[in-house]
User: Fold this.
Amino acid sequence: MSVSTQPCPPRLLVVEDEQHLAAGLELNFELEGYAVDMAASARKAGEYLLQATGYDAIILDVMLPDTTGFELCRKLREGGNFTPVLMLTALDSTEDRVTGLEVGADDYLVKPFELTELLARVRSLLRRRSWERQKPATRGATSRAEIRFGGASIDYERQEARMNGQEVKLTRLEFDLLRYFADHPGRVLTRQELQERVWKLANYPNTRMVDNFIMRLRRHFEPDPANPAHFVAVRGSGYKFVPEGARGGGARPGADRDAGQELGEDEGQDPGHE
Assistant:
């Protein structure tokens, strides 16, 4: 008896409460060859996530009847679920997009949207997911896109991060931020530059998001996040990445705050506090 070796189709969880849109999404995703589960609420999505062995991507509406997609995405990330998330929303302000990215979404699409763009974005997320799941042996023993600093080892091609040998789960944006720092070691990078290059947000006045992500990297990779040696604040300028470690353990206390105020932060805010 022959055994089928045909690969299983990618699995999508679509969380959308608007019935007509949900029906259209389900039909078109299935026509593309995906296996689709539909949920009209965060509660139903949670049930699927508990029962299923794993999804390849989650399509998540922001406005849900029992919570927001922002909150659901945040809980997923806090619970260690790093399945790629594409958020759909009628909220088209930059502030809303920033909120989605801050809670851990990988992509953000504003309604109304073209079906072709949605499908292209989903394919992009799935390519990344497929690459992450490949065994190292199938991709070569070494990677040209790997860096090491302190006890950290980052492989960008494999989307793998370790600290002292232990796996560290990172979002796509955390990987992107790490890579931008690694591409510019020792160079002072302003918050505005990081927003434009990593988040693709031009002329966005609130740079607090950058500080929050820097704090995440410090918690992941600094032995003493309060006294950083690798992701160092430069007073009045921004941040710089020091692979070999800053002498004396990093910036003096308050450097983050001083740099933030000169770049437009409100006085009295701690830019590293989430």
About this structure: The radius of gyration is 20 Å. The chain has two domains: 11-133, 144-262. The chain has a mean pLDDT of 81. Residues 115-133 form the longest helix (19 residues).
